[in-house]
Description:
Layout: H1 6-57, H2 62-74, E1 78-81, E2 95-112, E3 114-131
Antiparallel strand pairs: 1-2, 2-3
Helix pairs in contact: 1-2
Amino acid sequence: MMKKDKGEAISTVLEAMVGAILLSLLLSIVFVYGNQLLIYTRISHVSRDYIQKMEIYGCLTPELENELIAELTDLGLQNINCQNSTLIEEENGEPIVLDIRADMKYTAFIVDGFVKKQTDDYAFQISRTSISKTY
Length: 135
């Protein structure tokens, strides 16, 4: 077996270190964006659950609104506003709307010579429409 010369060994170590750094950076980005995608999915499920509850009551009652705000706050949303939702009871067969507007922390990776992690507020909105099923 031949002995590696010193220059070749250093080159191999440097390549491995650069590869490890790039892999850890890639995994960090995947975990951050994956987490944000999971939060958005949970928010979507919560909004779907509440539009179904609104179908029964014909509107977003104050009690439902308080529950919704509490659940969305637990998911990390801030400054939650549901004022564009249907707040007055609609008759059976009439359209109802759930409109959620809030601020959400958003993490982005910016490449400016170096990779920087930046967290900002993001104006978030999700709307759902259905038909009242009050009897």
